[in-house]
Design goal:
4-stranded parallel sheet, 7-stranded mixed sheet, elongated, about 260 residues, alpha/beta
Length: about 260
């Protein structure tokens, strides 16, 4: 009587991820996985010696049992984030500009917003324009003629109770205009000092131009040199203080609201 052949033992496949310890059954070399390609695996023993072996079926032993090492499946790529922390849009083509606008006080404000929110603004089709201060804001708003489909957001420096900026802001009452801002005298101060490489922003006496006073306190030759340092320090929203981040996000939401 013929005996029934025993079924072959299934050899398990084990992903050759880093630090998996395996023994090459042919040579007896035992080590941890350090590199794995589509055709070979590199093992490193306790003495730091490395050897490369082909990824052949049932070639290796783990805990004395035969296994087939296989190349690990590629991990899913994490979503790419823009500098503002939003999900970046691959292959972005800038949207045609909306009629809505965001106004800022000066070119430094505009530059910092571009560095952090430039991607988001192009996705939404929003143009940021510097207006050289708020002194003529009510007249400029009237000339702009804001409407439901033509919203206007304004970012103001030093928007605190009793400031000149706050007194100007209350003169604009259109429901299609949002004026918000941050408490800092200048947008430079909204950049985290540790990002710029200083312990804190210097205190500047009243009556002294703030940028000039900062440069004097830090021993910087002129404001252009310091601006280059400030601008270059900003790589993402993490380099900015929360009040500025909150203000800009509010403005983008407002002008893109349908």
């Amino acid at each position: 009587m013929l005996s029934t052949p025993r079924p072959r033992k299934q050899i398990p496949e084990v992903p050759a991820v880093v630090d998996v310890v395996a023994e090459d059954s042919a040579s007896g070399f035992c080590g941890a996985v350090v590199v794995c390609t589509s055709t070979a695996v590199t093992l490193e023993d306790r003495k730091g010696n490395r050897r490369v072996f082909p990824l052949e079926p049932a070639r290796f032993l783990i805990d004395g049992e035969p296994v087939t090492l296989v190349r690990p499946a590629a991990a899913a790529a994490a979503p790419v984030k823009s500098a503002s922390g939003s999900r970046a849009v691959a292959g972005l083509r800038a949207r045609t500009a909306r009629a809505a606008r965001i106004w800022v006080e000066g070119i430094h404000d505009a530059a910092l917003i571009e560095r952090v929110w430039g991607h988001d603004l192009r996705v939404e089709g929003i143009v940021v324009e510097p207006i050289d201060g708020l002194d003529n804001l009510p007249a400029a708003v009237a000339e702009f003629r804001p409407a439901a489909d033509r919203r206007l957001g304004v970012l103001a420096d030093h928007l605190v109770a009793g400031s000149k900026e706050s007194r100007i802001a209350v003169q604009v009452t259109s429901p299609h205009v949002l004026i918000t801002g941050h408490p800092y005298i200048d947008v430079w101060e909204a950049v985290r000092p540790e990002s710029v490489g200083i312990r804190a922003w210097p205190s500047v006496p009243r009556g002294v131009d703030w940028k000039t006073g900062v440069c004097a306190a830090l021993g910087i030759s002129d404001t252009a040199v310091m601006w280059g340092r400030v601008n270059g320090a900003v790589g993402s929203y993490r380099d900015l203080a929360t009040p500025l981040i909150t203000a800009v996000e509010r403005l983008i939401d407002f002008v893109t609201e349908q």
